[in-house]
TrEMBL record:
It comes from the Eukaryota. Residues 225-248 form the DUF8212 domain. It comes from Penicillium hetheringtonii. Residues 25-109 form the Heterokaryon incompatibility domain. Pfam families: DUF8212, HET, T6SS_Tle1-like_cat. InterPro entries: DUF8212, HET, Tle1-like_cat. Residues 403-642 form the T6SS Phospholipase effector Tle1-like catalytic domain. This is Heterokaryon incompatibility domain-containing protein.
Length: 801
């Protein structure tokens, strides 16, 4: 580093870095004008050179600094040999540090005169504040004073901090030295440079190297690519995604661009954006030969647009950009000029961390432009309301390429009733989101001639074909289909998953499984050894089942198990069981689920709730009554869908509304379970209306939903069918205990069981409705769970001892 002696003849001296640390020196910040003094002129000044404006500027600066007690000063015009590109690069890279280490910085304002009475107003409009290089010269020094054109002092940075903030938008705290530069995010620092200019295009990037503490070689002639290189260097040591929060006119599907901004201008409106990490588990973004690798929430396509939710917020809302993939490439490009700034926090319940590759710059993106234009015929602006409409309730976690295999087991000869209504399992299966290939669904009915073995084997073949490492598996069942789900879970627990090339071994594996379950002694030991051999030689291990959803499970072997309650246990992360409180048939005794307690390290979300209705009402297998607005099955279906979303299942928003899983409302917060939030936001008229529609639908289902009963006339079944069922049930019930047969109390509800609050609401609305197996001596003594949540609210009569 070269310094100028402040005493005449103003000679240059060269100092090493370790010498500078113990040396006090002043430094000049100024706008370059005509006749600036060069390094060559400084080392050999002639009389003609001494008359130049540039030499006079250096002379006056030395005199001012010497008067303040400084022996050395530094001036950028003449202390660097700009004829040497190597020296120029070596000087510009540490220049921020030179200003930082200077004892005092003098900012010379040629266009501000102390003679004028409005010198402070002149300061506000000084060209000095519009230049790129003066940004680092403003924020780096520890002490700074502003000088007028006659070298008299206007004021210090500390004294003028509030006025400087008006001009530059740089926080007063930074100007006063109360906070450090690195405390400000990338977009904030970029916004300070957005309106500043430099003579050369490349200098718009080079002047910011110190602001972001990066070093890179200077390549004059590269144009805007210098700013791209700057951002690449910033990315190497930062996980701040505000780097991608910029705006620029002219970007569209026809003219896409990369993820990096072409110039600092693009950050002019990004000063209010701050980082907001969404997950601690995701990979950091980084530069690769495919472009920038991002692992951030992606919203499923709206029209032909996908939205990348950046891990930052602005004005209390999440921020995103519109991106689109090419038909010929899995990579994305940015296609929206403006940021999507009004994305609500509720999307965090529905987003997952996807890996996407996006080109760095417009030049790279243009290679796919012809392919992208093929998708541009339906280019429609992506709004945040559309985004929220397609977000789904899932925990944020890295997904990679894994998917969820959802297997649905229904217990009906046909999934559709005569009026076109579908069973609850069929509705749930149809609503599953398959848009990104991240969910693959299987559906099977339990018709005539169907056996537990055939259903289980078909489902297992499906898993063999589609399962890949790290995939998740979810199971949904109704009635006997619940036992198919349990058997499949147990079968996979013992065997794992056979490779698809070993399909012929399924029969042998099934036979071994049955032997292991039914035999004792040596036969069981032999079967156990055979299980181990199968698992180790031909099978893949599977992950723990993620979700099990059961609608009124009944025992398919009830004929052989009439004198005791049967139970089923799943080791899955989520187990949700909806039971019918009003079913009275002896042949439809329920199988209760029990929480998995084998390993204390397993944490399991377990919900078993009793709902109003009979067995067929929980399954939704009956056609609607003529005056029925919303069927009784709606209650258990909405409850199950919301629990499934908690577990990570993703649903097609349009299918949800069209199939009346919730109501015809369009706001995702309602279907996702955030009902109290929607209710509390009374200033939002649309949310208030949607909440009313949602509650109305639940009330209609609860209070007016038709209650079916195969043992009573006029309850949804033909008289001949009722007569047959009565006779059948009479003979069947004789094998039960006398008290149960007389009282018809065939579904014993434990005192500590969760009963859905819709049971109480129906009892209040209909004085004739009283579940025969629910004794409530004092309604005021009930324990209410999830109070205020119309979907999840339950009550418990007492705690079991």
């Amino acid at each position: 580093m070269r310094l100028i002696r402040t005493s005449p003849p103003f000679e240059l001296g060269e100092f090493f870095e370790n010498q500078i640390l113990n040396l006090e020196y002043a430094i000049l910040s100024h706008r370059w004008e005509e006749e600036e003094l060069s390094f060559q002129e400084m080392i050999a000044p002639t009389e003609q050179i001494r008359q130049k404006k540039g030499y006079q500027k250096v002379k006056h600066f030395c005199e001012r600094a010497r008067a303040d007690g400084f022996e050395y000063v530094w001036v950028d015009t003449c202390c660097i040999n700009k004829e040497s590109s190597a020296e120029l690069s070596e000087s510009i890279n540490p220049m921020f540090r030179w200003y930082l280490n200077a004892t005092k910085c003098y900012a010379y304002m040629l266009d501000v005169s102390m003679i004028e009475t409005d010198c402070l107003d002149q300061l506000l409009t000084s060209v000095w504040f519009t230049r790129g290089w003066t940004l680092q010269e403003l924020v780096a020094p520890q002490e700074m004073v502003f000088l007028a054109n006659d070298w008299s002092e206007i004021g210090s940075r500390r004294e003028l901090a509030s006025r400087i903030e008006q001009i530059t938008n740089i926080d007063t705290a930074l100007l006063l030295g109360k906070t450090k530069l690195y405390n400000y995010c990338i977009s904030k620092r970029m916004s300070w440079a957005a309106t500043r200019e430099t003579t050369r295009t490349e200098d718009r990037a080079y002047c910011l190297m110190g602001i972001f503490n990066v070093n890179m070689p200077l390549l004059y002639g590269e144009g805007e690519n210098a700013f791209i290189r700057l951002q690449e260097e910033i990315m190497k040591d930062s996980n701040d995604e505000t780097l991608f929060a910029w705006e620029r006119n002219g970007i569209s599907e026809e003219k896409p661009c990369g993820l990096l901004a072409p110039s600092p201008d693009c950050f002019a409106e990004s000063g209010d954006i701050v980082p907001y990490p969404l997950s601690e588990n995701g990979l950091p973004f980084g530069s690769t030969n495919r472009g920038i690798r991002m692992q951030s929430p992606l919203v499923p396509p709206v029209s032909s647009t996908t939205t990348l939710i950046l891990q930052c917020v602005g004005s209390s809302k999440l921020v995103g950009v519109g991106i689109m993939t090419s038909p010929s490439s899995p990579d994305y490009v940015r296609i929206t000029s403006n940021l999507l700034r009004d994305i609500p926090y509720s999307v965090l319940l529905g987003a997952v961390l996807d890996t996407a590759y996006i080109p760095k710059s417009l030049f790279l993106a243009s290679t796919n432009n012809s392919a992208l234009q093929a998708q541009a015929s339906d280019s429609e602006a992506n709004s945040s309301s559309q985004i929220a409409d397609h977000l789904l309730n899932r925990r944020i976690q890295p997904r990679g390429h894994c998917k969820n295999l959802v297997l649905c087991f229904d217990d009906t000869t046909s999934p559709y009733t005569a009026d076109g209504n579908a069973s609850n399992v069929a509705k749930l299966h149809r609503m599953l989101d398959r848009s990104e290939g991240n969910q693959v669904a299987f559906y099977q009915t339990w018709g005539r001639g169907t056996t537990l073995e055939s259903v289980t084997k078909d489902a297992y073949r499906f898993i063999m074909e589609y399962y890949q490492r790290e995939d998740e598996i979810s199971l949904v069942g109704f009635s006997r289909g619940c036992h198919a789900a349990q058997t499949l879970d147990e079968f996979m627990d013992h065997f794992g998953i056979l490779f698809s090339s070993h399909e012929k071994m399924i029969d042998e594996a099934w036979s071994t499984f049955l032997t292991f379950k039914s035999q004792e002694g040596r036969a069981k030991q032999y079967a156990h050894l055979k299980l181990q051999y199968f698992r180790e030689s031909f099978c893949r291990p599977r992950r723990r089942i993620s979700f099990v959803g059961l609608f009124d499970a009944v025992d398919p072997d009830a004929q052989n198990n009439r004198h005791s309650t049967s139970y089923m246990v799943f080791s899955s992360q989520f187990v949700c069981h909806a039971l019918a409180i009003d079913e009275r048939q002896a042949s439809l005794r329920p199988t209760l689920a029990k929480k998995y307690t084998k390993y204390t390290s397993y944490s399991q979300y377990f919900e078993q709730v009793w709902f109003p209705g009979a067995h067929e009402d929980l399954g939704g297998i009956m056609q609607r009554n003529c005056d029925e607005i919303i069927p009784l099955s709606h209650l258990s279906l909405v409850w199950m869908v919301n629990n499934a979303k908690r577990a990570g299942l993703r649903f097609d928003r349009k299918q949800e509304t069209s199939r009346k899983t919730s109501t015809v409302e369009e706001d995702l917060d309602l279907i996702s379970g955030d009902y109290r939030k929607a209710k509390s936001e009374t200033d939002d008229a649309s949310l208030s209306i949607l909440h009313k529609h949602f509650i109305t639908a639940l009330n209609n289902a609860c209070e007016e939903g038709f209650l079916h009963n195969e043992l009573e006339f006029g309850r949804g079944w033909a008289p001949v069918h009722v007569c047959k069922q009565r006779v059948r049930d009479l003979f069947y019930s004789r094998t039960l205990s006398q008290s149960a047969a007389l009282k018809r109390n065939l579904r014993k509800i434990p005192l500590d069981a969760n009963v859905h609050s819709s049971v109480l609401r129906r009892m209040r609305a209909d004085s004739t409705y009283r579940p025969m197996n629910l004794c409530i001596e004092n309604p005021d003594c009930l324990t209410i769970l999830n109070m205020g949540d119309r979907v999840m609210e339950c009550f418990v009569r007492a705690t079991a001892k």
